[in-house]
Automatic annotation (TrEMBL):
SMART domains: AAA (SM00382). Gene3D superfamilies: P-loop containing nucleotide triphosphate hydrolases. Its main location: nucleus. It catalyses: ATP + H2O = ADP + phosphate + H(+). One of its GO terms (biological process) is telomere maintenance. Residues 158-191 are annotated as: Disordered. This is ATP-dependent DNA helicase PIF1. DNA-dependent ATPase and 5'-3' DNA helicase required for the maintenance of both mitochondrial and nuclear genome stability. Residues 218-433 form the AAA+ ATPase domain. Pfam families: PH_LRR1 (PF25344), PIF1 (PF05970), Pif1_2B_dom (PF21530). It is found in: Nucleus; Mitochondrion.
Length: 629
C-alpha cells in the first residue's frame, strides 16, 4: 500500500486502565483519523486526530486484537502505558491494511538493531518528529515471520481478551505478540501455531469498476449492471469493504447470493415478511424492536441480484423506509447501491401474482441517480464464447450460435475422475441425482455434522450458509468447493473435484483432487452470517457440497469449472443464459439437448436496457458537444 492508505477514519475510544484492567478514564472520538508513523527514534506511532487536535501514541510494546476486522473493529493495547485504543466503525479494507501494516512493522522491529536503546532514549535531544510509515516491503514480512517462528517455540499465546469498561471482554482475540515468558512454563506441544503474517493481496479493480466505487463513495445512489461475470459481485464486496460497517447493510435477493457477498437476504433486513400485507401492517412490522434498529441505523443499503426482487416489494420498502425514518426523501434518505442483471433470472412469484421488475417499480427512477453498465467480462476469457453468451443474453440465437452450442453435446469434459456438474431447472431433480449417485458408489459413508453457534437457528443457517448441516461423502464423490480457500492456486468457490479418500486419523478428513491439479485435505471452515435480529451466527463445516447436480436458481452468481446442462424443462426467460454463463469456457461446457426455443429474453427488460444505452449515449454526446464548445 502507499503510505496514504495506512490511515482510516473511524470511531475511537481511548481507555486509561488501572492495575486491575478497569478503565478509569475514557475519551470517545467520533470520526477520528488514524495514521501510522514513526518518530525520531524510529518507534512506531499511532496518531489519533479528531480534526482539531491530535495525540500520538508510541507503540513500543503492544497487544493487537484482530478478530473482528471484517466488522470494522480492532483494539490496540499499549502495555507499558496501560492504555487501550478501541477502534470501531472503520471501513474494513482500510482497517485491514492499517492493522496488518502495524503487525508486520512491529513484528519486524522487534529486537532490531535499529531500535533505540533505553539509554539512547534518555539522552536523546532530537526534536520530536512524525513521518508517515513507509509501505510494507517483502523483507519486513520475512523478518516479522522469522521472529514469529522463533516465538512459536518459546512463548505461549495468551487467549485472554482485554477488558473494557463494562468488564466485558473486548470483541477480539489476541493473535499477535505475547510477552516472552520462560519456555519451561509452556510445553511446546500445547501451543497453537501462529499464523504467518502477510499483507492482504487485493486484486485490482478494472477502470470501470473503480469508476463505480468512486461514484458510490461520493454518496450517489447507483444501479450497476452488466452481463454475467462482469465482476458485479466482486465489486460489491469491495464497496462493502470501503464503507463504514455500522451504517452499511449488505443484502441480496436470495440466501445463496447473499452469502457470496457476506450479507443477509433483503427480506430479512426489511423484516416486513413478503411485503404483501397492507401498508400500516408493514410499518408496524418494520417498527418491531430489532428490525427498527436496522432501518434507523442504515445509511447505505446494498442489494445484489436485484433482478430477482419484485418491483412491488421494492416500492413497499421505499415507502416503509420513508415512514419509519420520518423522512420525505426517496427511500428515507438511505443511499442505495444496487446491482444485478435483469436479463438473468426474474423474481420468483406464486401463481396468480403479477411479476414486476424493480426497474418497473414506481419509485425506481426517483431512487436511482445513476445507471452504470460494466462491459468487461471477467469470468470467461475466450472471445468466441463471450460472443455466444452475449447473443443468448439478449435472446438472439442465430443458427451459428445454435450450431456451436449443439456441438458441445459431444464434449468430453470429464477429466481425472471429475465429472461435469449437471445444472437442473428443477430442485427435485437435483436432490434425487445427488442422493442416487452417492448411494451407487461402493464404500463407507463418512458423515460430517456442522457445528453451529446456535443450534436453535439451524433453519436460518441452512438458508443462508452454503454449507449444509450434514454432509455425506464417499470415496469417489463429486464435490465442489463452497468457499474461496486459495484464489492463487485455483481453490475458489465453485471449483470442482473428486474425493480420493479419507485421512486415517480420527476425524477422517476427505482428500480431494481438484480440476486445477491441486490435491488437498479439506478441513472445516467457519462461516459467519448475520441473522435478521442482527446477531451473528456461525457454522463450522467442510467447505464442500455434492456436485453431481445443482439447480440453475442456486447457481446464479457462481462460476463453475465443468458443467453439463439439460435445457428441456426451462421455464423462465433468462434461465438458459444463467445456466450457460456459469461455465468458464466452452470446453468446460456440455449442452445435452440444445433447442433455440429455450433462449428467451424478456421484452420489457430489453426495452429498459436499450433506453439506458440511449440515455448514456445522449449524455456522452452532449458532454462531447460541451467539450467542443
Ligand atoms: N477486477 C477483477 N480482478 C480479478 N478478477 C475479477 C475482477 N472482477 C471480477 N473478477 C472475477 O470474475 C469472476 C466473475 O465475477 P462475479 O462473480 O463478481 O461476476 P458477476 O457480474 O457478479 O456475475 P453474475 O452476474 O453471474 O453474478 C469471478 O471469478 C471474479 O473473481
Ligand atoms: Mg454476481
Amino acid at each position: 500500500p502507499r503510505s496514504a492508505d495506512v490511515q482510516c477514519t473511524c470511531n475511537v475510544t481511548i481507555e486509561y486502565l488501572n492495575q486491575a484492567g478497569q478503565a478509569t478514564k475514557r475519551k470517545v472520538i467520533r470520526n477520528a483519523t488514524l495514521l501510522l508513523g514513526r518518530n525520531e527514534l524510529r518507534d512506531i506511532l499511532l496518531r489519533v486526530d479528531d480534526g482539531k487536535l491530535f495525540q500520538n501514541f508510541v507503540l513500543r510494546e503492544i497487544q493487537l486484537f484482530t478478530r473482528f476486522i471484517r466488522d470494522g473493529k480492532s483494539c490496540i493495547k499499549i502495555v507499558p502505558d496501560n492504555v487501550q485504543i478501541l477502534i470501531s466503525n472503520c471501513p474494513p479494507d482500510k482497517l485491514q491494511v492499517l492493522v496488518k501494516t502495524l503487525a508486520i512493522k512491529y513484528g519486524a522491529d522487534k529486537k532490531s538493531s535499529k531500535q533505540a536503546s533505553d539509554r539512547t532514549r534518555l539522552l536523546s535531544v532530537l526534536p520530536k518528529t512524525f513521518d508517515n510509515i513507509s509501505p510494507v516491503q517483502l523483507h519486513d514480512v520475512k523478518r516479522a515471520n522469522e521472529l514469529r517462528m522463533l516465538q512459536n517455540v518459546h512463548t505461549p499465546v495468551s487467549t485472554k481478551a482485554p477488558k473494557n469498561r463494562m468488564g466485558n471482554a473486548c470483541p477480539g482475540r489476541q493473535v499477535k505478540r505475547p510477552r516472552t515468558t520462560s519456555s519451561e512454563n509452556c510445553p511446546v506441544h500445547n501451543l497453537p501455531p501462529k499464523a504467518i503474517l502477510s499483507m492482504p493481496v487485493q486484486r485490482k479493480l478494472s477502470k470501470e469498476q473503480s469508476h463505480v466505487l468512486r461514484t458510490v463513495l461520493c454518496g450517489k445512489n447507483v444501479f450497476f449492471t452488466g452481463s454475467a461475470g462482469t465482476g458485479k459481485s466482486f465489486l460489491l464486496k469491495r464497496i462493502v469493504g470501503a464503507l463504514p460497517p455500522k451504517s452499511t447493510y449488505t443484502t441480496a435477493s436470495t440466501g445463496v447470493a447473499a452469502c457470496h457477498i457476506g450479507g443477509t437476504t433483503l427480506h430479512s433486513f426489511a423484516g416486513i415478511g413478503s411485503g404483501k400485507a397492507p401498508m400500516q401492517q408493514c410499518v408496524e412490522l418494520a417498527q418491531r424492536p430489532g428490525v427498527l434498529q436496522h432501518w434507523q441505523n442504515c445509511k447505505h443499503l446494498i442489494i445484489d441480484e436485484i433482478s430477482m426482487v419484485n418491483g412491488e416489494f421494492f416500492d413497499k420498502l421505499e415507502a416503509v423506509a420513508r415512514i419509519v425514518r420520518k423522512s420525505i426523501e426517496p427511500f428515507g434518505g438511505i443511499q442505495l447501491i444496487v446491482c444485478g442483471d435483469f436479463l438473468q433470472l426474474p423474481p420468483v412469484i406464486r401463481t396468480n401474482e403479477k411479476k414486476t421488475f424493480c426497474f418497473q417499480a414506481k419509485s425506481w427512477r426517483k431512487c436511482i441517480h445513476l445507471n452504470i453498465e460494466l462491459t468487461e467480462v471477467r469470468r470467461q476469457t475466450d472471445k468466441a464464447f463471450i460472443a455466444i453468451l452475449q447473443a443468448i443474453r439478449i435472446g438472439r440465437c442465430t443458427e451459428e450460435v445454435a450450431a456451436q452450442l449443439i456441438k458441445t453435446a459431444s464434449h468430453k469434459i470429464d477429466q481425472d475422475g471429475i465429472l461435469a456438474t449437471r445444472l437442473c431447472t428443477h430442485k427435485d431433480d437435483v436432490e434425487l441425482t445427488n442422493e442416487r449417485r452417492l448411494q451407487h458408489l461402493p464404500g463407507k459413508v463418512h458423515t460430517f455434522n456442522a457445528s453451529d453457534s446456535d443450534p436453535m437457528l439451524v433453519q436460518t443457517l441452512n438458508a443462508q450458509c452454503p454449507a449444509g448441516q450434514t454432509l455425506e461423502l464417499k470415496k469417489g464423490a463429486q464435490v465442489m468447493l463452497t468457499k474461496n480457500l486459495d484464489v492463487q492456486r485455483g481453490m475458489v468457490n465453485g471449483a470442482r473435484g473428486v474425493v480420493l479418500g479419507f485421512e486415517s486419523e480420527n476425524k477422517a478428513l476427505p482428500q480431494v483432487r481438484f480440476l486445477c491439479g491441486v490435491t488437498e485435505t479439506i478441513k472445516p471452515e467457519r462461516w459467519t452470517i448475520k441473522a435478521s435480529s442482527g446477531i451473528y451466527l456461525t457454522r463450522q463445516q467442510l467447505p464442500l457440497r455434492l456436485a453431481w447436480a445443482i439447480s440453475i436458481h442456486k447457481s446464479q452468481g457462481m462460476s463453475l469449472d465443468c458443467v453439463e446442462i439439460s435445457l428441456a424443462r426451462v421455464f423462465e426467460s433468462g434461465q438458459a443464459y444463467v445456466a450457460l454463463s456459469r461455465a468458464r469456457s466452452l470446453e468446460g461446457l456440455r449442452v445435452m439437448d440444445f433447442d433455440p426455443k429455450v433462449v428467451r429474453a424478456n421484452p420489457d427488460v430489453l426495452q429498459f436496457y436499450s433506453r439506458m444505452k440511449r440515455e448514456r449515449l445522449f449524455m456522452q454526446s452532449s458532454l462531447d458537444d460541451y467539450i467542443e464548445i
